[in-house]
Amino acid sequence: MRARSKVLRDTGRALGGALIFSMPMLMTMEMWWLGFSMDRLRLALLLILCLPLLILLSRRIGFETTRAWREDVADALFALGIGMVTSAVALAVFGAIGPGMSFHEITGKIAIQVVPASIGALLARSQLGSERREEEDQQESYWSEMFLMAVGALFLGFNVAPTEEMILISYRMTPWHAVALVLLSLLVMHGFIFAVGFRGGTELTPQTPWWSAFARFTLPGYMLAMMVSLYILWTFGRTDDTSLEQVITATIVLGFPSSAGAAAARLIL
Amino acid sequence: MRTNGKDKAGAPASYEKSLEWVVGGVAFFFVVVLLGYLLGLGAWVDGQPPRFSIVVESVEQIGNVYQMQVVVTNEGDVTASDVTLRGVLRREVGADEARELRFDYLPQRSQRRGAFVFEQDPRSDATMHLFVTGYVEP
Question: Is B3 touching A (CB cutoff 8 A)?
Answer without folding.
Answer: yes
